[in-house]
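Possible regression after last week's pipeline update?

I re-ran a chain I had predicted before the update to compare outputs. Posting the input and the new output here so someone can diff against the archived version. Not blocking, just want to make sure nothing changed silently.
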Amino acid sequence: MNRAFPELSQALALLLQRIDEEIRKSNYGGPPIRMYLVGGLAVNYYCGARYTEDVDAFYSKRLHTGSHVVNYRKKDGKDAYLYLDNNFNQTLRLLHQDFDSAAVEWEGVGNEGRMIRLYVLSPLDLAVTKISRFSEQDREDILVLSRAMPFGADALKDRATEALGDFIGDLSPVKLSIQLICDEIARDQELTRSRQVERPERELE
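New output (post-update):
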């Protein structure tokens, strides 16, 4: 479900067009390159939550592209910009092995005629990528995703635990982050259910 801000989507389409032009100038003759979107812009796609300036993504091919910047106006009329973050490195993030088959194509941004085609990681896989860094913003994004899509704590725990199979290093902090966010999702959803039960009772009074 695409809930992205329209003006943000338009800016993204222009950025993709510039990447497409760059690829064509290189005389690349292979199949279209998949661009997998993560980060705040992917959260905006599913939740329509918060603006973001950077485009975090990785690709199905090794791709060298410029630091493209697109200027646009937010809904409130304020000037804003969107830029491609070429310093983003997905190898440092937790990622499920089957992310590509679960990814969703972002329709309406002109994928059809381009050599670069935009896909968004599934809500669960997007949440998984945010667990390894687990900043305050990452934690909030995971909670927003779990409310909007929705998915439960058990589903996230299973997906993240499977992803650990390809993660190398000291896994204890990541395992702790998995447990912490899953506990928080469970509490959050239990609170939501309690409110839903309480509301009809009050309406009957």
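Follow-up from reviewer: compared with the archived run. The chain has a mean pLDDT of 94. Marking as no regression found.
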